[in-house]
Amino acid sequence: MPDSDLEAFFTPQGVAVVGAPHDPGKLGYDLVKNLVEFGYQGRIYPVNPRGGEMLGLTVYPHVAEVPDPVDLAIIIIPARLVEEQVIACGERGIKAVTVITAGFRETGPEGAALEESLKGAADRYGIRLLGPNCVGTLDTHAHLNGTFITTMPPSGEIAFLSQSGAMAVIAYEWAAASGMGFSRIVSLGNQAQITETDMLDAVSHDEHTRVIMLYLEGIADGRAFVEAVPAVSRRRPVVVLKAGRSEGGALAMASHTGALAGSEAALDAALRRAGVAWASTTAELVDWARALAWCPPPQGNRVAVLTNAGGPGVLALDALEHHGLIRAPLTEATRAYLHRRLPPAASVNNPVDLFPGSGPATFATCLDALLADETVDAVIYLCAPQNWYSGLSLAEVVGEAANGPLARQKPILAVLMGLDEEARQVLVEKRVPNFAYPEEAGSALGALWKRRRWLDADAEDEPEVELAGVDRQAAEAALEGGADGSGWMPGSGAEALLAAYGIPTPAGGFAADLEEVVALAGRVGYPVALKVAAQGVTHKTDVGGVALDLAGPADLEAAFRRLVGAVDDAEGVVVQQMVRGEVELIVGMVRDPDFGPLMMVGTGGTYVELFDDVAFELAPLNARQAEEMLDRTAAGRLLAGYRGAPPADRDAVVETVLRLAQIALDWPQIAEIEINPLMVMAAGGGVSAVDVRVRLQP
User: Fold this and answer.
1) 226 close to 595: Cβ distance less than 8 angstroms
2) Residues 656, 542: contact at Cβ < 8 Å?
3) Most buried by CB count within 10 Å: which residue of 10, 94, 132, 522?
4) ∠ CA 538-688-536 to the nearest 5 degrees?
5) What is the distance of C-alpha 261 from the center of its chain?
């Protein structure tokens, strides 16, 4: 159920403005003026100790004197006085408070303490607190402008939530430049109490909102976001623009998994899991939001291009392919129909190229035919500048088709490659997404296609299942063995942990001297591998600490002396049965501080960081999600049998990923796990975790 308390930030019956000055030009005065001038129908109560009147309204000396109805207070006074007024609102019974005032956490430790005290006061009185340090809220359909911005964007279907006040203000300019209209705008500020997750849920229930744009600088509670936002995405598409993506660093650099899990990998996995579209640029944020608001998601990825210029039509096809879309083949019946009605020079293949001179009626005929074609899931209309007829007349044709019965499940996007403002305005009025370049249309249609695929996968998502053959008591015993000074478990302990969860490892063990090495190799069976054992050495190949394919005692002696001599403080070696497989993979987990266990799978071996062929997903995950991880990497193609190689045991890899994810969920003291390589045998032959590392956190 939506948080009904948050609805007061958009459709209150009465608003008290605490800190309403009598002097024009001040922010509080502009705020009251906005409420009056933009048609808000509720009661407006300026609050100022001086009392009197302003803008024809009674000014109340104290919030306690404000009459009913009042369910929202907007505070814009010096920071040191804000908490006192929040308490006064609580005693008055006002349950929604926006604090526009700055000077809190963003200013340093003293401001952070002030903000924490402010939140405590709000919590004690059951107040929902927005901000501080925000611009406020706006609802165009309720004519509520609860901000100090002295303009009102046009009403529309797109909500915008922003962690930056400046970006919220810029949204007004987007409306003017792109023709988009807004339903609600929210400046979240410091998010002392109300977070982006809270507000996403509230706005997604608004009947006037069809798409939500979100500008992020960080997520307050990663796990809460992951758990709540999929339900939001089912109701309304969400498009995110994240600032700070270039920030370097990794969660942990001690393993390949940690080195590859950059700061954005967990967020990327979280947004993908939640069905959120992650825009790379501001233009994508706006373009995708308009397309998602105005078009149905296509039923498939087959696209027809209708154009009056061959070159741009080819560019459109290139852009479509880049975003996972393909050229619709068109049926013979459609091509024959078009051939009879188009000039001889026109192309009836896809792109359908009409050449200059074909008029609006011809465009209309082609649009109808393409929309009716069973092989077409979407249409891009592309018009290059010409002098034969007005772009306005073509825009009217496209707008009519986009609102007709054939377009209810087949989106139409328009590309106007010229400065035809009249035509663009018609397309805006008809709710046809329009772009200046083919690449922009391809990107927007790609966002629609991703939306369709997520909805379909979400609808048929398989339930999580309990894994068989798990011995948690044995796992606990392995973990009780502890770790070395850097947090890494000994190899025997790590292997015991995997064995407790049914993940196979090669036969072998630790040997401190040559005599033990020879005896252990005899029991394991030749050929064997030796790996140096020393604290602080995690990548053994980097220090020359691995010897493979040792066929007998003579090989063992030479390899043993070389390995222990290569590493200071070597404690001995690990003797392992040699394992050969079809494919070497890496499977790992790093515990993200915000989102929890982050699983990784990809092509393994010593060059894993060089190739960077890995995919990430958050735990918990099911078999379908593990399969999709493989499909996002070359590892998936290798498992299928590359260049004549036999297929490898993909099912066993998926099961290993699921079992490793369960280990991470069951034992929060594990900071990271890595199996590299995971040797994958031929189909049906299973897997073997040849090398495993487990790091514990305090």
Assistant:
1) yes
2) no
3) 132
4) 10
5) 15
Q: Tens digit of pLDDT for each residue in 204-227? A: 999 999 999 999 988 888 889 989
Q: What's the pLDDT tens digit per position in 46-93?
A: 999 999 999 999 999 999 999 999 999 999 999 999 999 999 999 999
Instruction: Using alpha carbons, select from 81, 186, 205, 73 the residue that is nearest to residue 134.
Output: 186
- Alpha-carbon span 351 to 330, nearest angstrom: 10
CA–CA gap between residue 198 and residue 631 (Å, rounded)? 33
C-alpha to C-alpha distance for 528 and 548, rounded to whole angstroms: 7
Give the side-chain half-sphere CA count within 13 A for 191.
17
Q: Rounded distance, CA 71 to CA 79, Å?
A: 22
H-only helix segments in 70-178: 79-92, 109-124, 165-178
The residue type of 66 is V
Looking at beta carbons, which pairs linking 344-349 to residues 24 or more positions away fall under 8 Å? 347/310
For 262, list phi and psi in degrees, rounded to 5: -65, 175
**Does residue 465 sit in helix, strand or coil?**
coil
For residue 632, count CB atoms less than 10 angstroms from its CB and return exposed for 0-12, middle for 13-18, buried for 19 or more.
middle
| Contact predicate 274/223, CB 8 Å | no
Spatial CB neighbours of 531, under 8 Å, sequence gap ≥ 6? 491, 540, 545, 546, 547, 563, 573, 574, 576, 691
Pairing type for strands 182-187 and 155-162 reads parallel
Provide CB contacts within 8 A for 576, sequence distance 6+.
Answer: 506, 507, 508, 524, 528, 529, 530, 531, 690
